[in-house]
Amino acid sequence: MSTYALDPWTALGDPSRRQIFERIAERPRSVTELAELLPISRPAVSQHLRALREANLVTVRAVGTRRIHQVNPDGLRTLRNDLDSYWGGALANLKELAEQETQP
Amino acid sequence: MSTYALDPWTALGDPSRRQIFERIAERPRSVTELAELLPISRPAVSQHLRALREANLVTVRAVGTRRIHQVNPDGLRTLRNDLDSYWGGALANLKELAEQETQP
DNA sequence: ACGAACCGTAAGTTACCACTTACGGATATA
DNA sequence: TATATCCGTAAGTGGTAACTTACGGTTCGT
Fold first, then answer.
1. Domain residues for A61?
2. pLDDT tens digits for B83-94?
């Protein structure tokens, strides 16, 4: 276990990290492959992958000298739960607004 | 329409902004009320609210001298769509992994 | 009309973090 | 064994953005 787990929202808050994550979501990819797709260096990708790993958004498996990264459902579950609670507030607002309009 | 719309992922990437958004999701609140709930100054809250507005995550309505902010479903829809596409990749990974295990 | 409450923006500072280069370890290939 | 590929981390730097204080505008109450 890592000493400090990063928040998945904060992790995906960075544009480069979001690009990396989107590529991984398409299919599992190696570090070098990701670096070739992005306008940043390979070490930068490595550092971003570490953040995504600490946020439980990706997992790794070693295949030869390459490290294949793929999406981890754990972090996605956290995001979905948070998002659902946000939706609760949004719907409550719309409901209240509708009631005010129908009965002023 | 604003000249430049901020990405909702980037907007919620900031911890303070996420706290503000969570409070608004509970119920619509004024700027001063939000500032009292957070460890930052009122102008800071104002700046964060602007970012959330540009990301289509909140809307405002003036009530007297106060500006009441509430959740905007538009930004939430974007987040949900992105999240769903991420889930697609995650499920595909799990499926492929299961197939490899059952038929090596 | 006057003070108070509520708020947005401008300006300036500081801390952080995204990025680079440099280096070394691990594994496959010849 | 030697070489190449793939990768992580350390160290250092620059830019940015999150915050503060200061100021001025708008609306409500008296």
1. 8-102
2. 999 998 888 877
Q: Does A47 touch chain B (CB under 8 A)?
A: no
Kindly determine whether residue B86 and residue A76, on different chains, have CB atoms separated by under 8 Å.
Answer: yes
Domain assignment of residue B3, yes or no: no
Locate the chain A residue with the closest alpha carbon to B69: A93
Residue A6 clears pLDDT 60, i.e. is over it? yes
B14 C-beta neighbours (distance < 10 Å), count: 17
**B66/A contact by beta carbon, under 8 A:** no
Average pLDDT, chain A: 90
* Contact call for A89 and B15, based on CB within 8 A: no
> Residue B92 sits in a domain of what CATH number?
1.10.10.10
Q: Is residue B31 part of a domain?
A: yes
Print the SS3 string covering chain A.
CCCCCCCHHHHCCCHHHHHHHHHHHHCCECHHHHHHHCCCCHHHHHHHHHHHHHCCCEEEEEECCEEEEEECHHHHHHHHHHHHHHHHHHHHHHHHHHHHHHCC
Band (pLDDT 50/70/90 cuts) for residue A69 is: very high
Amino acid A3: pLDDT: 39
**Nucleotide closest in space to B30 (CA vs C1'):** C6
